């Protein structure tokens, strides 16, 4: 049995070490720190991509980790793969909750697309016209946004995404295909307007 003292630094952990760490975190809250170290940046990046604001993403990310800490004892998964799906499900739900709770969602999206400054956008963006891409993404439905972000930014499989958003993998494929077509049309329309 792996104890908290036996866990190596999370960046050096093998798959079986991480599986043991997840199982240990379900029993010993102190082991959750290792999972936090490994997943915080990933979850934060996902949130920044979804909401476009580092400040809002920090709040959402904090809510994700509070939820994880409260419910880790009830986690039903077997290892890191299940934990990864579980935490991204929580992140997707927190982002969606943020949009539902704010009556100013449309105002926020319009302001984000029109007035976003580089500090709010992801620093590791490789897209030269990220504002246009983000504006087009924000025009999609929240589920479509989540699927695109999980597939291309988090590089998840269709099966993983299906479990996170609560649909079948075939539905994810179809939704992704249709969403990308909509995204392409919006981007083409934006380019024509320039």
UniProtKB/TrEMBL annotation:
CDD domains: Sigma70_r4. Keywords: DNA-binding, Sigma factor, Transcription, Transcription regulation. InterPro entries: RNA_pol_sigma-70-like (IPR039425), RNA_pol_sigma-70_dom (IPR014284), RNA_pol_sigma70_r2 (IPR007627), RNA_pol_sigma70_r4_t2 (IPR013249), RNA_pol_sigma_r2 (IPR013325), RNA_pol_sigma_r3/r4-like (IPR013324), WH-like_DNA-bd_sf (IPR036388). It comes from the Bacteria. Residues 35-105 form the RNA polymerase sigma-70 region domain. Residues 131-183 form the RNA polymerase sigma factor 70 region 4 type domain. One of its GO terms (biological process) is DNA-templated transcription initiation. The keyword Transcription applies. GO terms for molecular function: DNA binding; sigma factor activity. It holds the Pfam family Sigma70_r4_2. Belongs to the sigma-70 factor family. ECF subfamily. This is RNA polymerase sigma factor YlaC.
